[in-house]
Design goal:
Radius of gyration: 14 Å
CATH architecture: Alpha-Beta Complex
Largest sheet: 5 strands, mixed
Order of helices and strands: HEEEHEEHEEEEE
Strand content: 35-45%
Number of domains: 1
Helix content: 10-25%
Distance between the termini: 28 Å
Strand order of the largest sheet: 3-2-10-1-6
CATH topology: Sulfite Oxidase, Chain A, domain 2
Shape: globular
Number of strands: 10
């Protein structure tokens, strides 16, 4: 995976958008060249999952089952409009021992409002500020290179 994304890691970010419609059970992914992919809850449930711990702000934690974002990104070559930007390197297991993940289940159950249908988990963050909830889309953008 590192070789595939190596040319864009320094110049691209992954933007995550949340929507007020937590009932939507689809995730829309847009690639660098505009290619589009829509994944339903069943599509995401069929992908390989890993158990990760989400650290909540109140000092509590939840055990979540999540898909490595790198698997979703490979498929394409927040209730308040919350957006999160991650460098592609943060999704790459060759760069981080605990890459960013997309959770569809926490504490053994499918995620529901106000957290679901999907939530980004960035293991290792001290606060869940980048663990966007109610995720409905992922967009890969190339950042402008400045001299």
């Amino acid at each position: 995976m590192a070789a595939r994304w190596g040319s864009v890691i320094g110049a691209a970010v992954l933007c995550l958008a949340a929507s007020g419609a937590a009932a939507a059970q689809t995730l829309k992914v847009t690639g660098l060249t505009g290619q589009k992919l829509e994944l339903g809850a069943a599509d995401i449930a069929a992908l390989p999952h890993q158990r990760v711990t989400l650290q909540l702000e109140n000092g509590k934690s939840e055990a979540c089952d999540a898909v490595p974002l790198a698997l979703i990104l490979a498929k394409i070559g927040a209730a308040d409009g919350y957006h999160v930007a991650l460098a592609l390197a943060e999704t790459d297991p060759m760069v981080r021992p605990t890459p960013a993940m997309l959770a569809d289940r926490c504490d053994g159950a499918p995620m529901t409002a106000p957290e679901g249908p999907f939530r980004i988990i960035v293991p290792g963050d001290l606060r869940p500020a980048r663990s966007a909830r109610q995720v409905v889309s992922l967009t890969i953008l190339r950042l402008p290179v400045t001299p």
